[in-house]
Automatic annotation (TrEMBL):
Protein name in UniProt: DUF488 domain-containing protein
InterPro entries linked: DUF488
Highest taxon in the source lineage: Archaea
Pfam family, one: DUF488
Native source species: Methanosarcina mazei (Methanosarcina frisia)
Length: 75
């Protein structure tokens, strides 16, 4: 629903700001699970968005790199 009116990078930035304040804040255990997996395995976050600036996986990756010393590759 929220994605249907996204036209500009600014629209996406607003969406991901809201995502950070709600979904990320309300689900820290999910980030912890991904971070824990990344300590011993390669982890891939996948989405249909080609541009990482327009995808929630970038928000997730930024949060994880704040907790863990991991390298993020956008391929």
């Amino acid at each position: 629903e929220k994605r249907k009116d996204l036209l500009t990078l600014k629209d996406y930035e607003k969406l991901f700001e809201d995502y950070q304040k709600t979904t990320i804040k309300d689900n820290p255990e999910l980030l912890d699970n991904i971070a824990e997996l990344s300590r011993s395995h390669r982890v891939a976050l996948m989405c249909f968005e080609a541009d990482v600036n327009m995808c929630h996986r970038g928000v997730i990756a930024r949060n994880i790199t704040q907790k863990e010393n991991v390298e993020v590759l956008n391929i």
